[in-house]
From TrEMBL, chain A:
Residues 1-206 form the Heme-copper oxidase subunit III family profile domain. Belongs to the cytochrome c oxidase subunit 3 family. Keywords: Membrane, Transmembrane, Transmembrane helix. The lineage of its organism: Bacteria, Pseudomonadati, Bacteroidota, Bacteroidia, Marinilabiliales. It is found in: Cell membrane; Membrane. The keyword Transmembrane applies. This is Cytochrome c oxidase subunit 3 family protein. The chain crosses the membrane at residues 20-46, 58-80, 92-112, 138-166, 186-205. It comes from Carboxylicivirga linearis.
UniProtKB/TrEMBL annotation, chain B:
Keywords: Cell membrane, Membrane, Transmembrane, Transmembrane helix. InterPro entries: Caa3_sub_IV, Cyt_c_oxidase_su4_prok. This is Cytochrome C oxidase subunit IV family protein. The lineage of its organism: Bacteria, Pseudomonadati, Bacteroidota, Bacteroidia, Marinilabiliales. The chain crosses the membrane at residues 12-32, 38-60, 72-90. The keyword Cell membrane applies. NCBIfam families: caa3_sub_IV (TIGR02229). It is found in: Cell membrane. It is a multi-pass membrane protein.
TrEMBL record, chain C:
Belongs to the heme-copper respiratory oxidase family. Pfam families: COX1 (PF00115). This is Cbb3-type cytochrome c oxidase subunit I. SUPFAM superfamilies: Cytochrome c oxidase subunit I-like (SSF81442). The keyword Heme applies. It comes from Carboxylicivirga linearis. Residues 21-530 form the Cytochrome oxidase subunit I profile domain. InterPro entries: Cyt_c_oxase-like_su1_dom (IPR023616), Cyt_c_oxase-like_su1_sf (IPR036927), Cyt_C_Oxase_1 (IPR000883), Cyt_c_Oxase_su1_BS (IPR023615). It is a multi-pass membrane protein.
């Protein structure tokens, strides 16, 4: 019985439905970060000078490199979606691998950036930060929380794309059922989308 | 329950062009914020970020080739976020 | 008993269907929407009874001034737990998770929801969240005492078990989001052929509105609770004034979710009422489109009224006027619905059965709750009534009176479909009368206490409040007695009641065309819809 049910579910596969479902999930992610952007907006409004000065501590170069890196990975992921439809498995795998490699680069950069901040005593709860004043405390609290949550999303995306790569490699994900790859791509672009806003808010508006 | 395996395959070239535009916009935003434009700095940075996110949504996230429903929903969500921020600032802006 | 019949026919009900697993595993690993709905029902009823007991303990404490049965610390913990359990574990999932899961696919002519596995996952996530939240009770440090709102600065200053409660609420939010995603995709993709948007029954419509709020509001409280976790674990200053944070911002973020959450609770309740009333009036619903549009209007406008919980917190004047105005605005679509229900009953030949009694009393208590809400939504009266027993009476009339009565109505209405058996309607009516009298006796005095100035969340009061408090506590006993009658009657009906026919009430929506109880995939053949859901005459 359960086999026939599984079969009938398979026949009723609904790619459009899966896509809408993924988008709805992306909406929840957008709202999740929107909550943080509201907090950022309010505290920036209340502490304009402190936020301005604190932001100058962050390296624009590292931020820019990471932005370009992430944009590149997003483009690769989008190309993977096209490649699988062209039934070009080699190209799909290449694009997925590039995406993963770049994501890893992003995390390495992030690690060194965070480490630098910790080294200078700029982390939540540190004595040095408290001495700098309330605005700086808020700025770095938000900086670590928001980039940390973003990094967590990168890691989740990394795992997701790894699963997709494995399935493409053993031919269980092909041009006939590319929806998992597309949805992983949507998630990855969401991560990119959030970074596009994080970058100017923390690194540029100084 | 038709399965849209949309026939449209976006060529690599399109993604290449979009990526190039995104990188250029990033560099522009970095350059612009190094100049002191006073209150306009924030505005320009956010504006450029909005354009970039629009490109990501429309091309990378494939909205250009999706049906109207999805386009409408995505726009509605961004409008909602903007409205929530606006209403929150009705408090902070007038305290 | 029924096995004998079902084996000779091809119609095997979903309750007897043999799946891959046996015993309890056939339920807790089932992806059948009907079994998941019942799993939710059993869990929710259990938590509800715990919440009721805590509430009864509070009322008992308030029967006399001073210490009666517990000390102030215990009272703080009990009202917090009562709130957390009732809000996050009972009423927020409430109708959508139980009746939405069970009836949404059937009412739109589908075999299951769009993502059955995700649906099962949402139940598991719910249970995990519940266990985490309730573990706060048993760990060192004692149960949380901040109130269910976890307001800053209490939530990061208290030494009680804040983290489990907050993380539990966060996990429960995930479950709510997954259900919401599932329902929206189901309604968009799985409606039977011919079921246009305006042939969709009203209960699915309200579930649709609810699902959008679940998706778009829950993440905000999710991130807010995560910030509390960050604040407690890593000393990140988000809301601590000592670190530059603003406690009022916490209130904003919390209510951006928690006010729409009230509509997550009440919209499906309104939907259930919209199903019950036309069936028992034997008449098509009055103003179908007006109800649909008002549902969507409530969902949308309800998103922007959160500030009316913070009128005395120190917001700007502009914000006060805006939120008060929007609060009055959101009352309009609710009132439209009440007019539609009353309009449906006008000149109808009404069947006086228990589900109808619940629906009719819903109208009564919902009106009281809604109108007292306007007294609170007006700026001047709010200053006087803020944080008094009046507020407690108001939201119990909405959340318990509104949602609870609708839930009771729904379970009495759909009972024969779910269990394939019938309860004793006479006993059910008696239980309803007792519950209704107890309910009003319990909460009406609190309006007067509030106007008189009795604050909420106090375990003690001055002598002048003694009389109404005694009446209120006695009301709680009557209500619980009614509740016991209702529960015993339903349990007995589910086990031993007479077999129910396909359509005992004469309903017109699709669920009355399938077997009682439905088969595993509901329909032999997906029906083609050629009519409106309520074409009585």
């Amino acid at each position: 019985m359960s086999q026939t049910i599984a079969l009938s579910h398979d026949i009723h596969r609904d790619d459009e439905g899966s896509k809408i479902g993924m988008w709805l999930f992306i909406f929840t992610e957008l709202l999740l970060f929107a909550g943080l952007f509201i907090v950022y907006g309010v505290y920036r409004y209340l502490n304009p000078v402190a936020f301005h000065l604190a932001a100058e501590e962050l390296s624009v170069t590292v931020g820019t490199v990471n932005t370009i890196i992430l944009l590149g990975s997003s483009a690769c992921m989008a190309m993977a979606s096209s490649a699988i439809r062209m039934r070009n498995k080699g190209m799909t795998m290449l694009m997925l691998a590039t995406t993963l490699f770049i994501a890893f680069m992003f995390l390495v950069n992030k690690y060194f950036e965070w480490e630098g901040k910790f080294h200078h005593g700029l982390f939540p709860g540190s004595e040095d930060l408290l001495k700098l004043g309330q605005g700086d405390t808020l700025f770095y609290g938000l900086y670590f929380f928001m980039t940390g949550l973003h990094a967590l999303h990168i890691i989740v995306g990394f795992i997701l794309i790894t699963i997709v790569s494995v399935r493409v490699n053993n031919n269980t994900l092909t041009a006939d059922n590319p929806v998992l790859l597309d949805n992983a791509g949507l998630y990855w672009h969401l991560v990119d989308l959030i970074w596009i806003f994080l970058f100017p808010l923390f690194y540029l508006i100084a | 329950m038709e399965n849209h395996n949309e026939p449209h395959i976006v060529p690599f070239k399109t993604y290449g062009i979009i990526l190039a535009v995104l990188v250029v916009l990033t560099l522009i935003s970095v350059a612009v914020t190094q100049i002191d434009l006073a209150s306009l700095t924030v505005f320009t940075a956010i504006l450029l970020a909005t354009i970039k996110s629009g490109l990501v949504l429309v091309y990378f996230m494939h909205l250009k080739f999706d049906n109207k429903l999805l386009k409408a929903l995505v726009s509605a969500v961004f409008i909602l976020i903007a409205l929530v921020m606006f209403v929150t600032f009705l408090d902070y802006n007038y305290r | 008993m029924s096995n004998h019949i079902s084996e000779t026919t091809t119609h095997v009900s979903f309750r007897e269907e043999k799946g891959r697993y046996k015993g309890i595993f056939a339920w807790i690993f089932s992806t059948d929407h009907k079994r998941i709905g019942l799993l939710y029902l059993y869990a929710i009823v259990t938590f509800f009874l715990v919440g009721v007991s805590l509430g009864a303990a509070m009322k008992l404490e308030l029967i006399a001034p001073g210490k009666t049965i517990m000390n102030p610390e215990a009272y703080n913990a009990i009202f917090t737990l009562h709130g957390v359990i009732m809000i996050f574990l009972v009423v927020v999932p409430g109708l959508p998770a139980v009746f939405g899961n069970f009836f949404l696919p059937i009412m739109i002519g589908a075999k299951d929801v769009a993502f059955p596995k995700l649906n099962l996952l949402s139940w598991w996530v719910y249970m995990v969240g519940a266990v985490i939240a309730l573990s706060a009770l048993f760990m060192g440090g004692g149960p949380p005492d901040t109130g269910w709102t976890f307001y800053a600065p209490y939530s990061f200053k208290t030494n009680t078990n804040m983290l489990p409660a907050v993380i539990g609420a966060f996990v429960l939010g995930f479950s709510s989001i997954l259900t919401g995603i599932n329902f929206i995709v189901t309604i968009h993709r799985l409606r039977a052929p011919g079921m246009t948007w305006f042939r969709l029954p009203l209960f699915p419509w309200t579930l649709y509105g609810t699902a959008w709020i679940q998706i778009l509001a829950t993440p905000i409280v999710g991130i807010t609770l995560l910030m509390i976790v960050g604040e407690r674990l890593f000393h990140i200053g988000f809301f601590d004034p000592a670190l530059g944070g603003d406690p009022i911002l916490y209130q904003h973020l919390f209510w951006i979710y928690s006010h729409p959450a009230v509509y997550i609770m009440i919209l499906p309740a309104m939907g259930a009422i919209s199903e019950i009333i036309p069936t028992f009036a034997n008449k098509s619903i009055f103003g179908y489109k007006a109800i649909v549009i008002s549902t969507l209007a409530i969902a949308f406008v309800g998103y922007f009224v959160w500030g009316h919980h913070m009128f005395t917190s120190g917001m700007s004047g502009t914000a006060l006027y805006t939120f008060s105005f929007l609060t009055f605005l959101v009352a309009i679509p609710s009132a439209i619905k009440v007019f539609n229900w009353v309009g449906t009953l006008h000149k109808a030949s009404i069947q006086l059965e228990p589900p109808f009694f619940w629906a009719a009393s819903f109208l009564f208590v919902f009106m009281i709750g809604g109108l007292s809400g306007l007294a609170l939504g007006a700026l001047a009266t709010n200053v006087h009534l803020h944080d008094t027993a009046f507020v407690v009476a108001h939201f119990h009339f909405i959340v318990f009176g509104g949602v609870g009565f609708a839930f009771m109505g729904a379970i009495h209405y759909w009972f024969p479909k779910i269990w394939g058996r019938m309860y004793n309607t006479k006993v059910a009516t008696r239980g309803w009368i007792m519950f209704f009298i107890g309910f009003t006796t319990l909460y009406l005095p609190m309006f007067f206490l509030g106007i008189d100035g009795m604050p909420r969340r106090y375990y003690d009061y001055v002598d002048r409040f003694h009389g109404p408090n005694i009446i209120s506590t006695i009301g709680s006993w009557v209500m619980i007695a009614g509740l016991i009658i209702i529960l015993v009657n339903l349990i007995r009906g589910a086990k031993k009641g007479p077999k129910a026919t396909k359509n005992p009430w004469g309903g017109k929506t699709l669920e009355w065309e399938v077997d009682s109880p439905p088969t595993l995939e509901n329909f032999e053949e997906i029906p083609v819809i050629k009519r409106s859901p309520y074409d009585y005459r």
